[in-house]
Amino acid sequence: MKVVLQNLTKKFPNRNKKAGGEVVAVDDFSFEIPDGKLVGLLGPSGCGKSTTLFMICGLQKPTSGKIFFGEDDVTDLPPENRGVGVVFQNYALYPHLTVRQNITFPLENLKGEDKLTKQQMQDKAHEAAKLVQIEELMDRKPNELSGGQQQRVAIARAMVKMPKVLLLDEPLSNLDARLRLQTREEIRRIQRETGITTVFVTHDQEEAMSISDVIVVMKDGVVQQIGKPQEVYDDPVNLFVAKFLGTPPVNLFDGEVKAGMLHIGDDAVLSVPGAADGAVDVGIRPEGFLLKEDGVLCCALTGVEVMGRDISVVSTNPHAQSKAIRSIINAENKVDTDAKDVRFALKPNKVLLFQKETGERIYF
Ligand code: ADP
Ligand code: MG
Predict the structure, then answer these.
(1) Using a 6 Å CB cutoff, which residues line ligand 1?
(2) For residue 1, which of 28, 39, 30 has the smallest C-alpha distance?
(3) pLDDT at 182
(4) Which one of 78, 185, 215, 231 is most buried, by most CB atoms within 10 A?
(5) Residue 283: per-residue pLDDT
């Protein structure tokens, strides 16, 4: 089922009464979520991710704009009539019910021709439990489960009605690092197996990049960029997106374009024939540096961290906007750790230029 968001806008009265006025939580969001895909909604806290998700599931009514499931306008439908499954950050299981009862709960109130017998409910609960691999926990209460197991129950409960759309709001935030990794792979597997159109909200760029078919990057209620994770990483439309994606983050420098040549300090580092003269922000991805004796960019070496397959070379440069420049170099390179300076050649497609004032990308 494709989901179409059409000029979705949500305004709230400002929570801060003194400041007054309105907060535009989501500002004119249009996007067609393709059928059967997993879309990652990504951005810092407060950028409007949850509000968007709540509008899709029907818990919040848009101030303006429309939502379609397939060809059907669902903008005014209550959540229970939309056929959505929702998982929140805090699992919100019923503590006094067993796992089985928690999972069958959404099936208890089906009416008319949808009404299920006890046996049918048990069968469906078992199927959903199998999907998230918790069949052996069916008779336990939530407080007898680990965080990861509780979150699986919440996913099973969201899946038991075979929703048309699955909505996940920071579902992994309360899990420890190892479980987070494991559960996100599970979610991806379940989504692939069932082909349910899924929206996955997170503020964690690595999480979004690793499991999404498409990511939507938001800032202050405004969509910044939509695309495949690799495309958005390689080709960010502005400085915000470039900085938000990638670990270690993109390295930023003050640069200047003079007659088609990009300069960082006194170093002429790259030919940028299409760029206009003037001061620019230069972003260089950590993997964009190559160690080279006569490289174009000279930095002062401060440290080398061995990471096995790669090494991380840490250096400084008076024109860098952060204290440390982090470059990732293939471990087959030998670095003289006693050297004062390192010189880097740059991979042109890993060098990104941005307008100083607006942060807009400059293409060259
Ligand atoms: P996110 O999920 O990305 O952290 P939210 O969608 O929760 O962001 O919030 C977006 C903005 O809307 C924030 O500025 C938040 O304070 C505001 N907001 C969200 N819900 C309400 C509400 N019920 N009343 C007032 N402001 C709200
Ligand atoms: Mg949120």
Answers:
(1) 12, 15, 23, 25, 43, 45-51
(2) 39
(3) 86
(4) 215
(5) 98
For residue 113, the model assigns a pLDDT of 85
Pairing of strands 84-87, 297-306: unpaired
Distance 13 CA to ligand 2 centre (A): 18
pLDDT value at residue 313 = 96
Distance between Cα 45 and ligand 2 center (Å):
7
Beta carbons within 10 angstroms of residue 63's beta carbon: 15
pLDDT in the model for residue 266: 94
pLDDT at 308: 86
Dist. CA 186–CA 211, nearest whole Å:
10
Provide the residues around ligand 2 (an ion) whose CB is within 5 A: 50
What's the full length of the chain, in residues?
Answer: 364
pLDDT of residue 337: 86
How far, in Å, CA of 214 to CA of 33, rounded? 9
Q: Which ligand is nearest to the CA of 222?
A: 1
Vertex 218: Cα angle to 217 and 219 (nearest 5): 135
Residue 188: C-alpha distances to residues 31, 37, 185 (Å): 22, 10, 5
CB environment 98-118: b (16+ within 10 A), e (fewer): bbbbbbbbbbeeeeeeeeeee
Does this model's pTM top 0.90? My answer is: yes
Q: Which ligand is nearest to the CA of 13?
A: 1
